Amino acid sequence: RTQSHAAAAARLDLSGIYPPIATPFTAKEDVDYQKLEENLHKYAKIPFKGQTTRATVQLTEKMAAAGADAVLVVTPCYYKGKMDSRALIQHYTKVADSSPVPVVLYSVPANTGLDLPLDAVLQLSQHPNILGIKDSAGDISRIGLIVHKTKTQEFQVLAGSAGFLMAAYCVGAVGGVCALANVLGPQLCELERLCLSGRWEEARVLQQRLIEPNAAVTRNLGVPALKQAMEWFGFHGGACRSPLQPLTEAEAQRLRRDFSSNGWL
Amino acid sequence: RTQSHAAAAARLDLSGIYPPIATPFTAKEDVDYQKLEENLHKYAKIPFKGQTTRATVQLTEKMAAAGADAVLVVTPCYYKGKMDSRALIQHYTKVADSSPVPVVLYSVPANTGLDLPLDAVLQLSQHPNILGIKDSAGDISRIGLIVHKTKTQEFQVLAGSAGFLMAAYCVGAVGGVCALANVLGPQLCELERLCLSGRWEEARVLQQRLIEPNAAVTRNLGVPALKQAMEWFGFHGGACRSPLQPLTEAEAQRLRRDFSSNGWL
Amino acid sequence: RTQSHAAAAARLDLSGIYPPIATPFTAKEDVDYQKLEENLHKYAKIPFKGQTTRATVQLTEKMAAAGADAVLVVTPCYYKGKMDSRALIQHYTKVADSSPVPVVLYSVPANTGLDLPLDAVLQLSQHPNILGIKDSAGDISRIGLIVHKTKTQEFQVLAGSAGFLMAAYCVGAVGGVCALANVLGPQLCELERLCLSGRWEEARVLQQRLIEPNAAVTRNLGVPALKQAMEWFGFHGGACRSPLQPLTEAEAQRLRRDFSSNGWL
Amino acid sequence: RTQSHAAAAARLDLSGIYPPIATPFTAKEDVDYQKLEENLHKYAKIPFKGQTTRATVQLTEKMAAAGADAVLVVTPCYYKGKMDSRALIQHYTKVADSSPVPVVLYSVPANTGLDLPLDAVLQLSQHPNILGIKDSAGDISRIGLIVHKTKTQEFQVLAGSAGFLMAAYCVGAVGGVCALANVLGPQLCELERLCLSGRWEEARVLQQRLIEPNAAVTRNLGVPALKQAMEWFGFHGGACRSPLQPLTEAEAQRLRRDFSSNGWL
User: Fold this and answer.
1) What is the ipTM of this complex?
2) Is residue A209 part of a domain?
3) Please, which residues bridge with residue B71 across strands?
4) Is the four-CA dihedral D2, D8, D11, D14 of positive or negative sign?
5) Residue B132: partners with Cβ closer than 8 Å, 6 or more residues away
6) Which region among B63-67, B88-92, C31-35, D40-44 has the lowest average model confidence (pLDDT)?
7) I need a surface site. Which of B14, C137, C201, D88 has the fewest CB within 10 A?
């Protein structure tokens, strides 16, 4: 099994920009598959490198059977007081042992209240079926240190937000899984290209214009704003499902300003 | 509908002590229904007043059809940055509007990272199908204030932990949903009786002996400790499901000491 | 020295209600000693039991020389990441060893970001020159446990806020150091009397009417609100020193409502 | 006054690497001026650009009279619940209005529990006597955004820690005030040179080797570790003052390993 894992892991290159796909819903809050498909056709014209999904342990086999190249597994967090390194290492090890496709760790403290501890990341980086990590915490020292301490294992680090994408490339990340890629996908791919070709001055100018739009669709206004912005840029965003609330008029104006003041609208 | 809700709500008295039932698992991590049934027979001999379950919105109808008298609905929390009063009021209002049985709010920041805001509690307390709240945060000023501000609505406040049960009765709560009731159920019912009959000196002595065992099976060592202690007291606790880890030997000794030093073992 | 400490500690009974005195300033932000004195004359007619001050280690001798009966020593907190039990035990032990008057521990996480750990409290409770603790965190389980674990040492626990004063008495505290006592001192002393004489029903009604005014002058609007409310009740509150800001008109109205809706104005 | 402020501000270029000077103490915990002077002689041979000190408002005139080129003013934080943008803007405006030398803002949430809000930073950046900010929070998106939003004001941003120094340069910072500069000053100045000359690949290798030593002398082991490491590198570190505790033997070994495993010892 280890051998096939290693082969699977070797097969998959995570570098590049990934949008965590926003899901369009119908008026009845069912998934709107037709609009989702139209979005995917549009995304297909942007040089993204793949697609991920967050999954619970039980979903990995289904995801693999459905054609997933890899699974993105968020930290379990309800009993967060008990989620120490020991528990998290065992959890991810079990998932990676049984998953037919490679596993990517996912640490997103803003949502889970839990940061995957560094020692757990380093130990899990040695598992043959664990490819890398999506780190949304944004602690750039930690991201640099993960790159540094795993450099002999080809462990791949992905920035979890467009707000620190350039800095993450700067310290050795290979890409990003960025909500903003649902809206400004081509721009993020351009930022990637500038970083990879060492054109840091141009990268800085572009990066700076992306911070406010990114903050708007993530920590400030969240998924409702992401979906609204998608509409402005020709994608189907649609409504959110409750308990997420639609934007107020004031919030929508603020969102528009965060894009327009940076020259995107 | 409002009328039937009001009737349903009127029907149900939440006062008393409730154990959030621990679920025994088989070696394969399936629910062990036989052992669960045996536990329930034992619990039936303790003067508990009912049974609750945390549920997502979609589960309330199933729960009602299965015979639940009420549903305990935890705050949604994954996108916690967006879970403001507006979103939470709308969420609970929708659930309560559609639930065939009364709804009890459930705020447990230690697990969810989110405290149901006071203004949301006060507004929701006016819904005819919302009976009360299980408050596990343990902010006794807040609990007293909720009682004070809802006194004309017969809104029922339940302490979410045995550690502050006596203090909660003291400021006007009507009962508790306490993990410790899975282990020391008779003692918690005795504490209730002492509080309700105004024997506060005796209540204090008993309450003080319950704080350490309670902390051990909740915030300190959690569900694995609860299940271990259940075994010591003649219930089926059994194993936890991953990622919760079994107690280490040192933790088990510490757990035992927290019960024995208070005279329970 | 231990003997004289023990004698000193034995001499002082901390039970009762204490106002942490608000300091009036002149227009130039100097201390207004005349108005302070007038306040003290008014306070003298309320059955408070004493007066404390928070002090750094270096101030204790000055305070004793100036006539202080005891010193209230807040946890050091700037390097809070390093303030573990070891450091805090050593800190307070040094202070208590050298202080001519008894020491009262003071834990106020809302201001310091640091809770004095339980094990440190328990160890320090054995020092002959440490009399008790002012606990402003409001974790009533913890307060009950401190009382329980120190009952053989006559260690005295004081509630750090009027919001949980009754609950604190209920679990064994001997008094409170309450900002609200600068405004509603007689009412807090009445609450004390009701608790100590076992008239818990009346105590509950009074306690509930104090929670909102207390929250207003502490965590919600803070010292500027405390000083404004003092003016309304015949004391000299006066201005705050920068960077604390005066209340806005809307805040002043909200403050008034928190007192008037509970029947105090 | 504004004119002289503008002139003063124009005079001072903050770019470069600054050590927040560690203070050696004698056995009696007095400042050891002789050893401090020896350290300063050694520091003088490293291409640092200046020297700063954190100061309260009342100290700025003394600091200027004593020859300070600028003052670094930490956010006030004891009543942190009241330290909103309004209060902080007024505080810093008053300080900057009266300070004879330029002011640098200082936000260090790990110590103060308070982050200077972005809107306050942006408004204060327009004050003629406020030169820049030392940002120790390490949120690289925020640092990039501050640079972006203040680019027309020549507001200078300094990284508050060596762990994210390269990333900060990458997004537009002009330097750093880094505890690690007390120990590995030449290396930090080399990192600066690599960043400023666009040699990012070499910079990355060097930056990665600095993250663990930096974490050791800041958030992990703090000032006691900084002083111990200074001794190893030929400076006088000496003891800390209580309540900071000396390193345990295990901590000293861990500290040494963090330097040696990165090739510095």
Assistant:
1) 0.77
2) no
3) B103
4) negative
5) B14, B104, B105, B155, B156, B157, B158, B174
6) D40-44
7) C201
Chains B, C: CB pairs < 8 Å = 87
Q: Name which of C2-6, C53-57, D34-38, D110-114 the model is least confident about.
A: C53-57
Distance CA A180, CA A198 (A): 23
Q: D91 and chain C: CB distance < 8 Å anywhere?
A: yes
* C77–B contact, CB cutoff 8 A: no
Q: What is the pLDDT of residue D2?
A: 47
Q: Check A242 against B90: CB less than 8 A apart.
A: yes
Retrieve residue B56's tokens. Answer: 């997502």
The first and second tokens of residue D31, run together, are 């400042």
Compute CA distances C66 → B191, C61, C102, whole Å.
48, 8, 14
Residue count of chain D: 265
Q: Which two tokens stand for residue B177?
A: 């949903």
Asked if residues B113 and B79 have their Cβ atoms less than 8 Å apart, the reply is no
DSSP 8-state assignment for residue C117: P
Domain assignment present for residue A256? The answer is no
Q: Please tell me if residue B198 touches chain C, with a CB cutoff of 8 Å.
A: yes
Closest CA to A84 of C115, B224, B109, B135: B224
Q: State the nearest Cα–Cα gap between D83 and chain C, in angstroms.
A: 7
Output the furthest CA–CA distance in chain B (Å, rounded). 55
User: Which residue, D135, D245, D159, D72, is CA-closest to C79?
Assistant: D245
Instruction: Give every CB contact of residue B112 below 8 A, 6+ residues apart in sequence.
Output: A78, A113, B74, B75, B77, B80
- Around Cβ A53, how many Cβ atoms within 10 Å? 15
**Would you state the structure tokens that stand for residue C54, as one six-digit string?**
């928070």
How confident is the model over D112-123, as a mean pLDDT?
93
User: Within a 10 A sphere around the Cβ of C126, how many other Cβ atoms?
Assistant: 11
Q: Is position D243 within any domain?
A: no
Which structural domain range is residue A89 located in?
Answer: 2-197
**Which of C116, C86, C84 lies closest to C103, judged by CA?**
C116
- Measured between its terminal Cα atoms, the distance across chain D in Å is 51
CB D255 within 8 A of CB D216: yes
CATH number of the domain within which C186 lies: 3.20.20.70
Compute the average pLDDT of residues B119-138: 94
| D161 DSSP 8-state letter | S
For the segment C211-262, what is each residue's pLDDT rounded down to a tens digit? 999 999 999 998 889 989 988 988 787 777 777 788 999 999 999 999 999 9
At position C197, the amino acid (one-letter code) is S
- How confident is the model over D111-128, as a mean pLDDT? 93
Query: Which two tokens mark C63?
Result: 């305070």
CB atoms within 10 A of CB B109: 18
Provide the 10 A C-beta neighbour count for residue A111: 18
For the record, the structure tokens of B248 come out as 């280490």
A159: in domain: yes
Domain count across chain C = 1
